[in-house]
Each structure stands twice: as structure tokens, then as C-alpha cells.
From TrEMBL:
Native source species: Methanomethylovorans hollandica (strain DSM 15978 / NBRC 107637 / DMS1)
Any one GO molecular-function label of the UniProt entry: hydrolase activity, acting on carbon-nitrogen (but not peptide) bonds
Annotated ranges, domain Amidohydrolase-related: 44-338
Protein name, as recorded: Cytosine deaminase-like metal-dependent hydrolase
Highest taxon of source: Archaea
């Protein structure tokens, strides 16, 4: 049976977001009409958010010690936390029973849904079993998850690497590689070849701790680069020339002490930049916090930040029906309470969402 609803409010409309007062008509989830009307409704009608880089397996540990305490100050050590195969997260993942891992991931996925995220891309450790665990965690969840599998081997014969990668790509959407410093070059090249032969995306961490692995990562011609925190202008020009997107994780980089990515330079060069929350053990998957940080600490333009966390992410993840509101589309929409104690008094709904909105300002999610 067909269902129809009309929603009045302030609409964040289109791929180049503009604000109009009016209504949207939805029939069976598809936007059939959008009209301008001088409504008094304080509801803000917005596309849901896209989290373009996560590690939801880390949900089994959410309060790790970030490093050694020296003179009442924590000295952070990124490699000790996350570098395979012996970083803290990898030791925890190896020691966690599959049932506990799946339950922890389910809870993080539910958290993403209620905080306005409609799609995410996850670097899933643990080879085929790890990918299958995330697929099970996603069952029945109203969110689009791109699973980027990671092989369990860090070295070995080419035939063995190819075999595991082929098995992995039968269950995942693509490959998500830790970084060019963490794997033998022959392994990296084999993984890239297998992904290309299967026409599956190849994502790679790059330039997070320092610049030393950027050249190697770029030479693999990945489909998406993650972090690029220490990229120099020459690196970014190469990325722009190759028309490769970048996913930045500003809150994670800030917390681990590795620096802040040059987001404005990326945008100035026309690079498609999206945003992720990265490791769940370090940060909640709350995209509102990422937006606020980008605006208030980085000083990035409000509309650019909004696009990075909606349309840009959707384009990178190839989530065709998400990212913006327009007639004929069926995006996931969040209705925000523009009259909440937090948002009452904002002059621009988009600016208000980016700078100060919280998950508790969400009235409901429309799928």
C-alpha cells in the first residue's frame, strides 16, 4: 500500500546546499515534490550524514590508555595503538571472541543510526572472518555499510596473497589497506592488482603519522586516500591531477597528536574531500562533532563542511540516493528541531547544524 507524507520546514536543498522555507512531499520514500511556502515550522529538513572512514571492530575497547604519562602529560604513540600486527587494537581484536565482536559492532552501528548517519565505510580487519562478522552485525540495520576488507597476512607468496584477496572480495565491497609502511611492497601491488581485476575499490591510509609513505601510496593509484595529514602541496597537486578523493579524520588526528590535515589546501585544489570518525576506540562515530571541529578549529567554510559530511562522502561511497535533497531522489532525511534549547535562535539552519547541532536535536530519521 502506497504511503505519502508532506513535511513543512526549512529545507537544506540540493547538491550546492541552499535554504528554502517550504515543504517536501514523499511517496514511498521518494521525493515527489518540493515547494516554497512561508511556513512557520521550525523543523530543519536535512540529508543524513555520511561517515567515510571507520573501524567499528574497535568497539570492543572504548577507553584505551593513549600513551605513557610523563610529567603529568600523556605522550601519545599512534603505532602502539593501531599499527598491525602488534598494536593494541590488533591484540584486543585477536583476543575477542567473535560473538562479543559482533555485538560490539552492532551497538556502534545502532549509535551511528540514531546520531544521523545513513552510510559508512569501514576498514574491517581479520580477513574473511572479520568481514563476515561485520556483515552479520549489519543484518537488519537500516544503514548502508561499505565493507573494505583487509587480508590477515602481511607477507607471503603472491599466490597466497591473491587467493586470500579473492576470497575476501567475494564477501566485501573492496579492500582497505593499513598503509604503505605496514606491508611489503609486493603484497601491496598484488592487492591493488586483485582489486583492479575485480573492479573493486582500493582504499589506503597515507600520510597519517608523517609524509614518508605518501609517495608509495600514490604510486599504487588507489581509489581513495585516507588521512593525508602530513601531505605537502606537491602531494596534493598529484592527488588533484589524478582526481583521487581524500577522507580526512580530524578528530582522530587531533587526539592521537599526529597533526591536522591541510583541508583548506585540499579544497582549494578541487579535491573531493570527505570526513570519517576513524577508530571507535578513540572517538564515538558522531559526525556532528567532526563538523564542529572543522568549522571552529580549521576555519573551513560552513557549506564546504556540510558537503564533506553529506554529498562528498556519498559520492566516494557510491551511495547514489544519499547526500542531498532533490525531487526524484530517495535520500535518508533527518528532521532537526530548530526550536530546541540548543538550536533556538540560529539565523542559518545549515550553519547551525554544522557549528552546534547535537544528536539530541534530531526529531526523527526518515528512510
Amino acid at each position: 500500500m502506497s504511503s505519502e507524507q508532506v513535511i513543512y520546514g526549512k529545507i537544506i536543498l540540493g547538491p550546492e546546499p541552499e535554504i528554502i522555507k517550504g515543504y517536501i512531499c514523499l511517496r514511498d520514500g521518494v521525493i515527489t515534490d518540493i515547494g516554497e511556502e512561508n511556513t512557520t515550522s521550525e523543523v530543519i529538513i536535512s540529508p543524513c550524514l555520511v561517515n567515510s572512514h571507520t573501524h567499528v571492530g574497535d568497539s570492543v575497547l572504548k577507553d584505551p590508555v593513549l600513551g605513557k604519562t610523563v610529567d603529568n602529560r600523556i605522550e601519545r604513540d599512534l603505532d602502539a595503538l593501531v599499527k598491525p600486527p602488534d598494536g593494541l587494537k590488533h591484540r584486543i581484536l585477536m583476543a575477542t571472541p567473535q560473538s562479543e565482536l559482533i555485538e560490539a559492532m552492532k551497538r556502534t552501528i545502532s549509535d551511528m543510526i540514531i546520531t544521523g548517519t545513513s552510510a559508512f565505510a569501514d576498514f574491517r580487519e581479520g580477513g574473511v572472518p572479520g568481514t563476515l562478522a561485520l556483515k552479520e552485525a549489519l543484518e537488519g540495520k537500516d544503514i548502508e555499510g561499505m565493507i573494505l576488507g583487509r587480508i590477515s597476512q602481511t607477507e607471503g607468496d603472491k599466490s597466497d596473497i591473491e587467493y586470500e584477496a579473492e576470497l575476501l572480495l567475494q564477501e566485501s565491497h573492496g579492500l582497505g589497506v593499513s598503509g604503505a609502511r605496514d606491508l611489503d611492497r609486493n603484497v601491496l601491488e598484488t592487492l591493488r592488482e586483485v582489486a583492479a581485476s575485480r573492479k573493486k575499490p582500493f582504499f589506503i591510509h597515507s600520510g597519517e603519522r608523517d609524509r614518508s609513505d605518501i609517495g608509495s601510496a600514490l604510486s599504487l593509484e588507489p581509489d581513495v586516500l585516507v588521512h593525508m595529514t602530513h601531505a605537502e602541496m606537491s602531494d596534493l597537486r598529484q592527488v588533484a591531477d589524478q582526481q583521487k578523493p581524500i577522507v580526512v579524520c580530524p578528530r582522530s588526528n587531533f587526539i592521537t597528536g599526529v597533526g591536522m590535515p591541510p583541508v583548506e589546501q585540499m579544497l582549494d585544489l578541487g579535491i573531493n574531500v570527505a570526513v570519517g570518525t576513524d577508530n571507535v576506540m578513540l572517538d564515538s562515530p558522531n559526525m556532528f562533532t567532526e563538523m564542529e571541529l572543522l568549522v571552529k578549529i580549521f576555519g573551513v567554510d560552513d557549506r564546504q563542511v556540510f558537503k564533506m559530511c553529506t554529498l562528498n562522502g556519498a559520492s566516494i561511497l557510491n551511495v547514489n540516493e544519499s547526500g542531498y535533497i532533490a525531487k526524484g531522489l530517495s535520500p535518508k532525511i533527518m528532521l532537526m528541531n530548530g526550536n530546541s534549547d540548543n538550536l533556538a535562535g540560529i539565523a542559518d539552519p545549515l550553519r547551525g547544524i554544522v557549528r552546534r547541532a547535537r544528536p539530541d536535536d534530531i526529531l526523527t530519521i526518515i528512510n
